[in-house]
Amino acid sequence: MALGGGGGSSESLLPPEEPVGMEGDGEGAREPPFLLRALRIATVVTLYWFTSITMVFLNKYLLGSPSLGLDAPLFVTFFQCLVTVLLCKALSLLAGLCPRGCLDFPSIRLDLKVSRSVLPLSVVFIGMITFNNLCLKYVGVAFYNVGRSLTTVFNVMLSYLLLKQTTSLPALLACGAIIGGFWLGIDQEGAEGTLSWSGIIFGILASLCVSLNAIYTKKVLPAVDGSIWRLTFYNNLNACVLFLPLILLSNDYYTIYHFEKLGSSSFWGMMTLSGVFGFAIGYVTGLQIKFTSPLTHNVSGTAKACAQTVLAVCYYEETKSFLWWTSNMMVLGGSFAYTWVKGVEMKKVQAETPPKANEKNDAGV
Questions:
Q1: Does some domain include residue 357?
Q2: What is the span of the domain harbouring residue 213?
Q3: pLDDT level of residue 8 (50, 70, 90 thresholds)
Q4: What is the reported pLDDT for 74?
Q5: Which of 3, 92, 146, 263 is the most exposed place for a label (fewest CB within 10 A)?
Q6: d(CA 242, CA 78)
Q7: Is residue 28 one of the residues assigned to a domain?
Q8: 39-98 pLDDT tens trace
Q9: CA atoms within 13 A on the CB side of 350
């Protein structure tokens, strides 16, 4: 999820700050036994996979289930943002009441000046979570990963256009594999009669907004003292306010007003649960990065997408062609290759970085 729940299915682009309730490792902390570390990493990765996959299937039910019959994607997204805002405020209040060190969550209070500073990011954030949900509404869960797979490609394009950063040939080849898999997937969805051009367009727009969200996040973080959780609060609060006129102007207001299950406790339970999972994905993403690394997190995310696709095909009892599976493997393989190439390049840059001026060499100079 990109910063802060909101019910979208894209995950954090920046390593969050220390997760709630997690203590810093400390320089003098003793290294736990290997078995304990392995068990802890396995637990965190499993929790991340469970939360992320469950959130996608839950959102698919709310957005496009014939049994539910709800056609109000903007309202669903608005409610998930509202749940995130309430959870952030509740955890902030709880942290203030608990003994120091028991619950690590920043103090949050409404500051209109900060809210205005975050507003440009919030506009991009709304586009990201809305287009994510609209893509999921119109395409199947099995194709969802391919439908919004161009985030990496847009990252490369925007890095060059906005930041003038060039990309190495191996990374560009990995992007080429992603694009090839994306177009092959579209071709195969069309051949099977399940292609939704609306879903494809929303997936492309979602991918673009995810990339823009990462860029704007870096610009806006100083306004919230570098706190990801404060940014989550303001982002979702602004989104709630901005969603209200959109809901009133769209067909969602009429749909919700006449929705036959509006008084159903099970419906509101599912809505609330989706909001909780939207918030939780930011937390478990932070845990996975903390106990592994950003590179391992990206690899885990790629493997999770593969497992999610297989689960969706089995759950919905779908039959897919060899070329359809090939398109998924091209996207996943390209994403993994790009992650690996960038990881190697980052290590190389770090190894070549000269020592700081205030550090003495071996001779003591």
A1: no
A2: 34-347
A3: very low
A4: 95
A5: 263
A6: 9
A7: no
A8: 888 899 999 999 999 999 999 999 988 889 899 999 999 999 999 999 999 999 998 887
A9: 6
Q: In percent, how much of the chain has pLDDT > 90?
A: 57
| Contacts of the segment 182-187: beta carbons below 8 A, 24+ positions apart | 182/146, 182/149, 182/150, 182/327, 182/331, 184/323, 184/326, 184/327, 184/330, 185/143, 185/146, 185/147, 185/324, 185/327, 185/328, 185/331, 187/323, 187/327
| CA distance linking residue 336 with residue 329, whole number of Å | 10
Look at residue 216 and tell me if it is in a domain.
yes
Residue 313 lies in a domain: yes
Indicate if the alpha-carbon torsion angle 187, 192, 197, 201 is positive or negative: negative
Residue 54 burial (CB count, 10 A): 15
Task: Please enumerate in sequence order all residues whose Cβ is within 8 A of that of 311, keeping only pairs 6 or more positions apart, or say none.
Answer: 53
Q: Are 5 and 286 in contact (CB under 8 A)?
A: no
Nearest-angstrom CA–CA distance, 282 and 11: 7
State pTM to two decimals: 0.84
* 142, 60 contact by CB (below 8 A): no
Contacts of 339 (CB under 8 A, 6+ apart): 295, 298, 299, 302
Amino acid at the residue 85: V
- If we measure between CA atoms, which residue out of 17, 15, 10, 24 comes closest to residue 56? 10
Q: Which two tokens stand for residue 95?
A: 């942290």
Neighbours of 53 (CB within 10 A): 18
CA Rg, the chain, in Å? 21
Q: What is the DSSP string of 88-129?
A: HHHHHHHHHHSPTTTS--------HHHHHHHHHHHHHHHHHH
Q: Are 142 and 311 in contact (CB under 8 A)?
A: no
Query: What pLDDT does residue 355 have?
Result: 56
Count of domains for the chain: 1
Q: Which residue has the tokens 């919004």?
A: 148
